[in-house]
Design a protein that fits this description.
Layout (H helix, E strand, L loop, with lengths): L4 H32 L6 H19 L4 H4 L2 H8 L5 H5 L5 H18 L2 H13 L3 H15 L5 H22 L3 H23 L7 H13 L6 H27 L8 H14 L4 H26 L7 H14 L21 H19 L2 H10 L6 H14 L5 H19 L3 H11 L11 H7 L6 H34 L1
Helix pairs in contact: 1-2, 2-4, 6-11, 6-15, 6-16, 7-8, 7-9, 7-13, 8-10, 8-12, 9-10, 9-13, 9-21, 10-12, 10-21, 11-16, 11-19, 12-22, 14-15, 16-19, 17-19, 18-20, 18-22, 19-20, 20-22
């Protein structure tokens, strides 16, 4: 039965009222802090802190769209005398933002020409069609794609394929319990593998980009694309393996054997795609060229001195190539046209810029260092602190945007590490990687929300599986950051 007019009207009113309350509450908190100045900050620092409170409160409550909130430094910093407009605006052109822009555009081309679908179907076809093998195939395909595409785009692409497989299985198998287990495993594997796979590369998930931008801006430490992969890809693969074992061996064991009908569905979808067309081949060539340049950048720079490559230039080069090269089909249009960029998440780029601008002024006002020192007074160093930071990061990201979380907490964690005289990278990486592992709630990440909207998952499925994966992720990230990270960083330097 469709909802009544009065229900819809009341729902809109409730949503509008909550938004107004959130707007007023955030503004009131900021003004109250500025007026009371409880920490005795100087006038400039108090204004910066008030702006931070306003932005964080509106980010958390989603009183305004997050990219809109990220524009506030351009308005408030000049008005309050915190910084001139050119200083406040400079972080919106941070090189890391253009690295992500290039990755976005390459992802758009892969999606436009269905190359992502071909890759996914081939991986699933290779793994087999028994229940466990289907789940494993989806985990591998999703994890691989999310290294290069956003986790949201990856989930949106894999979701219809999973639903078609589930529907075919329902038409051929009568064991309702086994079908339910398969459905839960497939849907959760898409969401979680998108999140875990994304931590493998800098561009795989927004928190990685945000943290790399912070390191370059504040510590002058330039994380190279291939170095991040060397560090984080093994951890990502381990978490994907844990996901498979937890779901198929313990929580939702699947005893479905090989199904020829399921294999036929996969093959049918592959046949619909046909042979690799010229456009797909050219997008694949650009994608492969970009990835190879990222991986071999140091080698190229060391053997000659005519050109100097960096990750951002490579990403933008790959993106520009897509606009230059023709598709080779009848219309022979470029692989990417400007109207294709309407689908791109421009708001994420603004969000990065606003977060970096805010972090810059928090640092210059001395607030971050003071906050880190204050928190350090209640903490002790060692592996326990890394575990606490990881746990807090994972569970906070269940209710807060992981991008905003990294933008806000990266300088705080750095200040804490400085006050305790410990390696800031250990705490920072723990916080960043943890921010991409929220698994318990539908609002934790967009992939979680997408699969939960299918109606085939109950909240208990996500909370149970998610809690276990949160704990596994926290322990794994902690051990990785404390024992392996220092040695790995030393090895690649």
């Amino acid at each position: 039965m469709k909802p009544s007019f009065f229900y819809l009207h009341r729902h809109r009113m409730n949503k509008s009222t909550k938004r107004i309350i959130a707007l007023i509450a955030g503004l009131a908190l900021a003004l109250l802090f500025s007026f009371l100045n409880p920490f005795g900050l100087d006038a400039k620092a108090a204004n910066v802190a008030a702006v931070a409170i306003l932005m964080i409160s509106w980010w958390v409550t989603e009183a305004l769209p997050m990219p809109v909130v990220a524009l506030l430094p351009l308005i408030l910093f000049p008005i309050l005398g915190v910084a001139k407009i050119d200083e406040a605006a400079a972080p919106y052109a941070n090189p890391v933002i253009f690295l992500f822009l290039g990755g976005f555009l390459i992802g758009l081309a892969i999606e436009k020409w269905n190359l992502h679908r071909r890759i996914a179907l081939n991986i699933v076809n290779k793994t087999g069609t028994s229940g466990n093998h289907i789940v494993l195939g989806f985990i591998i395909a999703t994890g691989f794609l999310s290294m290069w595409l956003s986790n949201t785009a990856t989930t949106m692409m894999m979701y219809p394929i999973a639903m078609s497989v589930i529907q075919v299985m329902e038409g051929n198998i009568s064991d309702s319990k086994q079908l339910r287990h398969l459905s839960v495993c497939l849907l959760l594997s898409i969401a979680y593998a998108s999140n875990f796979g994304g931590i493998s590369t800098i561009i795989g998930t927004p928190p990685n980009v945000a943290y790399v931008a912070f390191l370059e801006k504040n510590d002058g430490y330039a994380f190279e694309f291939v170095d991040w992969m060397k560090l984080c890809a093994p951890l990502s693969i381990f978490l994907l393996g844990c996901l498979y074992v937890v779901m198929t061996k313990f929580l939702y064991p699947i005893k479905l054997q090989h199904s020829e009908d399921t294999r036929n569905v996969i093959r049918s979808e592959m046949e619909k795609l046909g042979k690799l067309c010229k456009a797909e081949a050219r997008v694949l060539a650009v994608f492969a060229t970009t990835a190879i340049l990222w991986i071999t950048r140091d080698v190229i720079n060391n053997i000659q001195s005519v050109i100097r490559l960096d990750d951002t230039a490579i990403a933008v080069f790959g993106a520009v190539l897509l606009f230059l090269l023709r598709s080779g089909n009848k219309e022979n249009k470029p692989l990417l046209e400007w109207q294709d960029t309407q689908k791109m998440a421009w708001g994420i780029l603004l969000l990065f810029g606003g977060g970096i601008s805010l972090a810059d002024q928090l640092g210059k006002a001395g607030i971050i260092e003071s906050l880190g020192t204050w928190i350090a007074g209640f903490a002790t160093g060692g592996i326990l602190l890394v575990l606490i930071v990881t746990l807090v990061s994972i569970f906070v990201s269940e209710v807060m945007s992981n991008v905003a979380q990294v933008i806000v907490f990266a300088p705080v964690v750095a200040g804490m590490a400085k006050a305790l005289n410990i390696d800031a990278l250990q705490l920072g990486m723990a916080m960043t990687l943890g921010a991409s592992c929220a698994s318990m709630l539908p609002m934790g990440t967009p992939p979680n929300a997408i699969v939960f909207a299918s109606g085939r998952l109950k909240l208990k499925h996500m909370t149970t599986t998610g809690f276990i994966m949160n704990i596994i992720s926290a322990i794994s990230i902690t051990l990785f950051c404390w024992y392996l990270l220092p040695a790995l960083v030393k090895a690649i330097q």
